[in-house]
């Protein structure tokens, strides 16, 4: 039962934060969206920060679970798996814009909130480690293999940022096709 209530609260909070951004979100707004009293909300999440961290954890969990649909170290080639990271990001940009935008809001919060910063650092570390697991099966030299995850993430986040602020200005498919050529050349 508590898990269902947590899910209800997290869903409501994501809607409110997507609409109002983190800085504009108030616990009363989330309670209203979740159709519960504010005191009941505080029972499950005593502070706004606790709730924001729970949302960030849930988003990370969803991304990692979704990544399994794109990456398969056993059955796919290195190129297919690297392309899988780009496919996942492209899908997020096109079909999950509010969550992609929310990530930028969390990044900003991470510049002033150490707990959010650490969570975000962990997110990037997990992402880079996933990419490294794919690249470790390649014959790319070690210094290049070390930098490729940083470059790939920068290119994916750059695509998100540019596309979401100026939708339609460039073709995502073409963008990621060129990125793949850069990575594999």
Automatic annotation (TrEMBL):
It comes from Clostridium thailandense. Keywords: DNA-binding. Residues 3-63 form the HTH tetR-type domain. GO terms for molecular function: DNA-binding transcription factor activity; transcription cis-regulatory region binding. InterPro entries: HTH-type_TetR-like_transc_reg, HTH_TetR. This is TetR/AcrR family transcriptional regulator. Residues 26-45 bind DNA. The keyword DNA-binding applies.
């Amino acid at each position: 039962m508590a898990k269902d209530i947590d899910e209800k609260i997290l869903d409501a909070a994501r809607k409110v934060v997507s609409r109002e951004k983190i800085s504009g979100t108030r616990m009363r707004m989330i309670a209203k969206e979740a159709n519960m009293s504010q005191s009941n909300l505080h029972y499950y999440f005593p502070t706004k920060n606790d709730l924001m961290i729970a949302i960030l954890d849930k988003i990370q969990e969803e991304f990692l679970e979704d990544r399994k649909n794109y990456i398969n170290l056993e059955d796919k080639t290195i190129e297919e798996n690297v392309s899988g990271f780009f496919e996942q990001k492209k899908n997020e940009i096109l079909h999950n814009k509010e969550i992609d935008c929310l990530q930028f809001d969390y990044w900003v919060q991470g510049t002033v909130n150490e707990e959010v910063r650490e969570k975000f650092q962990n997110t990037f570390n997990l992402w880079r480690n996933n990419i490294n697991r794919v690249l470790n099966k390649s014959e790319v030299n070690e210094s290049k293999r070390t930098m490729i995850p940083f470059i790939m993430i920068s290119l994916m986040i750059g695509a998100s940022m540019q596309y979401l602020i100026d939708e339609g200005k460039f073709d995502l498919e073409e963008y990621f096709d060129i990125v793949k050529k850069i990575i594999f050349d």
